[in-house]
Amino acid sequence: MKFNKLVATSAFGLIASAGAAFASDCGSISIAEMNWASAELMANVDAIILEEGYGCDVELIPGATQTTFASMSEKGVPDIAPELWINAVATPLAAAKEEGSLVALNGGPITGLGEGWWITKKFKEDHPELDTVEKLLAHPELFPYVEDDAKGAFMGCPAGWGCQLINANLFRAYGMEDKGWVLVDPGSAAGLDGSIAKAVERDEPWFGYYWSPTSIIGKYELQMLPFEAEYAGNDNWNNCVALAEQDCLDPQPTSWIESEVESVVTDDFVAKAGPAADYFKARVYPGEVMNAMLVYMTDNQATGEDAAYEFLETQGDLWTQWVPADVAEKVKAGL
């Protein structure tokens, strides 16, 4: 395995100067290794497959959604963002796609992802009739609040998170206080995760906000509840639900905005990648597989590279569908 990880301060300059020096089948390729677990895993899997299977020379560049997108659109580096959550950059990304500088090779690299309201697997099995948010909201007595068991507890986001505002406004939109609910602030990410772990381990009900893919969803098998209400539009969401309460006087009931993730590449990558581009079009992680890999990373304190090798060694039936047989054999030999 020969791909390199560049420190953020030197990455762009090194790639620019070294590009001509590489001699390989698909040339010099740079991949964003973003700062969350699933993106780290995907970047490292991509790097191994491109190097071993397609003969590319790969550099991994540390990144995050905003900084990676800005660099790709302004400098053309890195070539690939494996897991770009596009809601945060929707308008400028659409413009870049229209002018042809950026291309979405895969509009759904992970299935089953998104934010929303979740319940435990046991609660779903015990109460199959409560299969939507609206049906469940009629039964706060099933989720007794520890400080007042006459009320139901809905676990929101810690203060300071963007989702705190969203959950607070949806709490108002659905009239949850009048229905007997309390919006609980978990205090921190650890508090939110701890509330889930405690509930599952004690076979107690839990209802609240979370997102996928995450190790928590994978480890505790939380189940997302669908909303009966349809998405009420971007104006309601962007100009009310996502804002502070004083700026959202009349939030309307709505389902959660769809979380969109794409594998985005530069036009330069499309031009030089050849058959390697087809790999990205085919590369889709089932949500349950991704969540299981995130559990592996958490339980074993594994890096993205560690997890990539674990994935390639244990999920051969999946990833070999993404590449031609001869490429798969090269990757296996490289492992």
UniProtKB/TrEMBL annotation:
Domain (ABC-type glycine betaine transport system substrate-binding) ranges: 28-313
Alphabetically ordered keywords of this record? Signal
Record's GO cellular component terms = ATP-binding cassette (ABC) transporter complex
Alphabetically, the GO molecular function entries are:
transmembrane transporter activity
Give the source species: Pacificibacter marinus
Highest taxon of the source? Answer: Bacteria
Q: Where is the signal peptide?
A: 1-23
Indicate yes or no for the key word Signal: yes
The name on file for this protein is Glycine betaine transporter periplasmic subunit
Q: Which Gene3D superfamilies match?
A: Glycine betaine-binding periplasmic protein, domain 2
CDD domains under this entry? PBP2_HisX_like
Q: Does the record bear Signal in its keywords?
A: yes
